[in-house]
Amino acid sequence: MQHILIIDDSESVRESMRLTVVNAGYQATVASDGSEALRVLKDKGPFALVITDIFMPEIDGIELVEKIKASQPDQKVIAFSAGGMGLKSSEMLEVAKEMGADITLEKPFTDEQLIERIQELTGTSQ
């Protein structure tokens, strides 16, 4: 069973995504921000996929993607955002792509869209 790390500072978003991923047949671990995600990656990795929000306290998703790709260039990453701090989500997602995110998703997205992107990056079909 492939293991996916989900990072978002909103508990309700994390839990919703965790349930979607688990119901699709994957194992899921969650983290509330980039700092926690880096600890989880070190302690519980490797992961088949990392899914991260962009706007978070501590280490944001842009910096997180950059750090992950610097230490684990082959780690697959999906970045998502609804925008924030006066920036459009499309602008932030473009930066995430430049930092190494394999796929970006603009919020809101459906559970089906998320699972399709996960399957695309992990090479699975559940």
What keyword list fits this structure?
single chain, alpha/beta, 5-stranded parallel beta sheet, globular
Description:
This protein is of the alpha/beta class and 126 residues long. 46% of the residues lie in helices and 19% in strands. It has five helices and five strands; from the N terminus they run βαβαβαβαβα. The protein has a five-stranded parallel β-sheet with strand order 2-1-3-4-5, with helices on both faces. Helix 2 runs parallel beside helix 3 and helix 3 runs parallel beside helix 4. It starts with a strand and ends with a helix. The model has no long low-confidence stretch (mean pLDDT 92).
Topology, element by element:
Layout: E1 3-7, H1 11-23, E2 27-31, H2 34-44, E3 49-53, H3 61-71, E4 77-81, H4 89-99, E5 103-106, H5 111-122
Parallel strand pairs: 1-2, 1-3, 3-4, 4-5
Helix pairs in contact: 2-3, 3-4
From the alpha carbons, calculate the radius of gyration and give it in angstroms: 13 Å
> How many DSSP-defined strands?
5
Mean of the pLDDT scores? 92
Q: Structural class, from secondary structure content? A: alpha/beta
Number of helices: 5
Distance between the termini: 11 Å
Which of globular, elongated, flat, extended, rod-shaped describes the shape? globular
Secondary-structure element sequence?
EHEHEHEHEH
How much β-strand is present in the residues?
Answer: 15-25%
